[in-house]
Write a structure and sequence with these properties.
rod-shaped; mainly alpha; c-terminal domain of poly(a) binding protein
């Protein structure tokens, strides 16, 4: 009996990889084996950086809160410690937004912690 090969599935798989490699330079967008490696590498970076993005934003928020808190005469760590003791449930994202876009509201939060 002759060997049965599922050309439909294998062609679809190659087509999917080649469509993901659109926009890559030279053989990365035209040769399947090179494109496959490039796409796998890109997907790995995408997965890694989705996690890193969260870390980068948290760092940015902390820097913004620290700058605003120091304008009010308090360090970041002291501010966050007092915030926890007064049981004000605002996360860093919201606090950084207040510090950047609504400084008077941030001042009110700092006043409540004292």
């Amino acid at each position: 009996m002759p060997r049965s090969v599922n050309h439909v599935a294998s062609r679809a798989r190659r087509k999917r990889v080649m469509s993901m490699a659109k926009g890559y330079f030279t053989t990365r967008s035209t040769v399947y084996t090179v494109a496959k490696n490039a796409v796998e590498k890109a997907l790995g970076y995408a997965y890694r950086d989705r996690k890193a993005k969260k870390r980068h934003f948290r760092t940015l928020w902390i820097a913004r809160i620290n700058a605003a808190a120091r304008q009010e005469g308090m360090s970041y760590s002291k501010f966050m410690g007092k915030l926890g003791k007064t049981e004000i449930a605002l996360n860093r994202k919201v606090l950084a937004d207040l510090a950047m876009n609504h400084p008077e509201a941030f001042k009110a939060v700092v006043a409540q912690t004292n």
